[in-house]
Structures are given as structure tokens and as C-alpha cells.
Amino acid sequence: PPEIERPPQAQAVKSGGIAAFYCYATGEPAPSFTWKKNGKKLRYTDSRYLISDFEGGSLLRIEPVRKKKESGMYECVAENGNGDPVSVEAELTVYDEKELPNGFPQIIQNPGMKVVEKSRNAVLVCEGAGDPNPTITWIKDTMPVDLKANPRLSLMKQGKLRGSLRIEAAEETDQGKYECVATNSIGTEYSYSAQLYVRVRRVPPHFTIRPELKYEVKNGADVNITCVAVGSPMPFVKWREGVKDLTPDNDVPIGKNVLILTNIRETTNYTCVAASKLGIIETHTVVKVQALPRAPTNVRVSDVQPTSVRL
Known about the structure:
By secondary structure, the chain is mainly beta.
């Protein structure tokens, strides 16, 4: 039979605010969830109720909460066809905004919309107050942000920004709607939501160090030819000799590729290719082996010295 792993928590919120219950359960097969209020199954028809299943659990979110309608016992029921369904209850208390108990948490500073460039850092500001001092947690797209699972995310611990969410080296997956939640023993208060946009710079590849058009070398000489290209995303760079790839497909360097030629015996054309999903560019070079001069013919001696002969 299914087992409730983490039950929903009792909450006290103000009228007009947000309440969210998270219910986690395990079982084989994975259980399905239903929510009840005061023993009656909740319907999906009321737009203020969001019921959303996720891997290993279910969310019931009420927004906005109405004082008279919403107070009561909420029940999460998990069943999977093996044994009896299991259920757990959590109480929701709703206070009138004008009659909040002393110390009820409040959000002093709400997070605001933010645009951050990919791989840059961002801070979503949140400041809460209350007595006792509230704990700040964060919600992204209605789900709790798990700071332990993502080392790039952290809560700021000191000063006015205490409780703000710091995101290091932002990725596209960080984009979404964020809310901060202030909770103490008196109640729970949600901030306004703030959208975080992660902007990805898109720059087609271009060469910053091109090979020279021609390298003249002696027969049997060595030469190294550097080719560098940049872009966003950074391009792969490879070398070709005619139509033959010289860079193995499973080891194509990014940004820079040095062609190392040894014991050069014949003139050859080479192509440096830079490629990303935004385009493919190429530049050409020729390595020319200098021919030895021909032996002179019809040679006549014009002057003889003790140590030299002029021809």
C-alpha cells in the first residue's frame, strides 16, 4: 500500500493571501492523489484552487484564500490499488486582514522582475519581518526551491538582503516565476510573484585568429597553424585537408585548434572550420613547399681568385 512520506503542514494565512499544501507519498505502483476539505472531495472547477500532481506527490494551492470559505481541515488521500488508501489531514486557519495576531509575518520587500544573462549571477530580493523572526523559503513555479539539490542556489544570511535568493551562473532552467514565503509560529505570508528571465546571448561564430593565406616552408620542415573562433554558444573548431577531416569527431576542440604539421613534403591546401548551431564558417590556407633551385647550365668562369671563383 502507499505510504505518506511527508504530510501537508497546518497553516495560518491572512484572507486574500495564498495557502499551499504539499503531500508526498510513495508506493508501487506510484499512488494517485485526491484532496478533500472537511471530508468532501475538492472539485477542479473553482479557479482559486490549483491541484497539481508532481513526481512523488501532489500540491493543493488556494489563491486567493477567502476567510469564511477556506478555514477547515484539508485531507490528502493517496491510493494505488494495493491495499487501502492512506490519508493525512492538515488544518488551514484564515485570519481577517484587519485582525491579524501580533507577530504575524509580513513581507517588507517583495522580489521584482529580473532579467539576467546566462552564466551571470542574480539576486532575487526578499525581506520579511515578524515575531518570532520568520524563516524565508522560496517557491519557483509553485514548487519549493530545494537549495540542497542545487549548489548554485543559496539564501543570503546577513544584512538587509537576508533571505534573498542568490543564483550563481544562471542557466535557462532557472527561468520562472518566483515567490518568497515568510513563515513563523504565528502564520505564513507569501510575497508577490516575480518573473526571472534568463537571456541567452546568441552570436554566430567568427574568427579572431585566422591562419595566414600562405605558409612557405622548406622541404621536410615543420609548422604549427593556429585557428581561433568565438561566438555564443562557443563554436567547435576543426581542420580539413581537402575534403578529409583531420580532427576526430569525438574530440573536436571548442574555440581553438592548432594544426601541427611535421616533415612537410608537398604543397597542400587546408581549411579551418568553425561551427555552432548558429552557423558554419571556414577559412583556407595553403602550405607551400619551396622548390630547390635548378642546377645552372652554360656556366662560364669570369674571374678566378685564390679563394673564390666568379661564374
